[in-house]
């Protein structure tokens, strides 16, 4: 089957228990744009918030499901344990360290990770995040920061960087990455944390910060118990719907149970779990977020795909109002 390589990260979806606090942190502190305020299409009683660059270009989306009664995450293995975000250069990393200090954001010191200046930090619910410098990046291009962001464009977040998978049996995940998804194993490095874990680097497409996945073995930890501050799934970029339908066949031929083709309106999707239980999604680059809102007013109102529009009154009645006017 003639398949184009996956193009890198499409989006990462995580869990929050507080949509208002989440909106304030990711727009006012991190300077991302809320490009879509909608609902979880599998449970329309909860918000699904999409933060990204100026228009939600593929590879720039960090999204959250609001689950108001979500408990605290018990961090562990078989999880997406770290989401990184790209910034333009090394000077930007220093800018962000100063910004975090001024805003009392929990953060570590600047370190080198895989040859890139990096800064780990946590949001108000303990979501594990890291900024990585694109100064020496050669590979998947980043997005374009919104010009109305409170963060200067020269230091603005450009999109998603490497996503870290922590698993108990890494060979199982590596086999899916390489034999099914056609990733290339690029290199390995020792993590800067106390556990000094070996990190294997896999890349796809043009590679670089937007096309890498990190794989870490931790068989000394219990399985993660998700809650607020945990990651629900990671999605990888597929160029077109035609390509996505080919991937359905690939997963079926590989014997991997999957969702089959799923219509999400803003993109088309395919879901499956790799053998350690982490949820992967393949998602198309389009159509994008401007089919139901103009560029100037993205994220300002509750947006519903057409197939939910006749339920708007009932859906809105279940949601706590969230003011998001730009």
Automatic annotation (TrEMBL):
SUPFAM superfamilies: Glyoxalase/Bleomycin resistance protein/Dihydroxybiphenyl dioxygenase
InterPro entries per the UniProt record, alphabetical: Extradiol_RC_dioxygenase (IPR052537), Glyas_Bleomycin-R_OHBP_Dase (IPR029068), Glyas_Fos-R_dOase_dom (IPR004360), VOC_core (IPR037523)
Matches recorded under Pfam families: Glyoxalase (PF00903)
Domain VOC: 8-134, 159-285
Name of the protein in its database record: Glyoxalase family protein
Lineage: Bacteria, Bacillati, Bacillota, Bacilli, Bacillales
């Amino acid at each position: 089957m003639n398949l184009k390589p996956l193009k890198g990260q499409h989006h990462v979806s995580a869990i929050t228990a507080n949509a208002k606090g989440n909106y304030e942190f990711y727009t006012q502190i991190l300077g991302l744009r809320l490009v879509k305020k909608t609902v979880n299409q599998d449970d329309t009683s909860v918000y699904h918030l999409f933060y990204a660059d100026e228009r939600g270009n593929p590879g720039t989306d960090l999204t959250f499901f609001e689950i108001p009664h979500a408990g605290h995450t018990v961090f562990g293995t078989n999880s997406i344990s770290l989401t990184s975000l790209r910034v333009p250069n090394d000077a930007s990393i220093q800018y962000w360290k100063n910004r975090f200090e001024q805003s009392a954001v929990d953060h570590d010191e600047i370190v080198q990770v895989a040859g890139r200046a990096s800064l780990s930090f946590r949001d108000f619910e303990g979501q594990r995040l890291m900024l990585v410098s694109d100064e020496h990046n050669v590979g998947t291009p980043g997005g374009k920061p919104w010009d109305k962001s409170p963060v200067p464009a020269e230091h603005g977040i450009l999109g998603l960087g490497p996503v870290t998978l922590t698993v108990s049996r890494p060979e199982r995940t590596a086999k899916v990455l390489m034999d099914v998804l056609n990733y290339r194993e690029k290199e390995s490095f020792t993590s800067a944390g106390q556990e000094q874990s070996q990190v294997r680097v896999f890349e796809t497409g043009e590679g670089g910060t937007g096309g890498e996945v990190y794989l870490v073995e931790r068989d000394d930890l219990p399985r993660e118990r998700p809650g607020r501050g945990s990651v629900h799934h990671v999605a990888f970029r597929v160029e077109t719907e035609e390509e996505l339908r080919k991937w359905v066949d690939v997963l079926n031929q590989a014997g991997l149970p999957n969702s089959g083709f799923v219509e999400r309106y803003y993109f088309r999707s395919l879901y499956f779990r790799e053998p350690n239980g982490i949820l992967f999604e393949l998602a198309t680059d389009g159509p994008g977020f401007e089919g139901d809102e103009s560029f100037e007013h993205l994220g300002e109102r509750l947006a519903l795909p057409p197939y939910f529009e006749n339920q708007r009154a009932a859906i809105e009645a279940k949601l706590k109002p969230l003011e998001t006017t730009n």
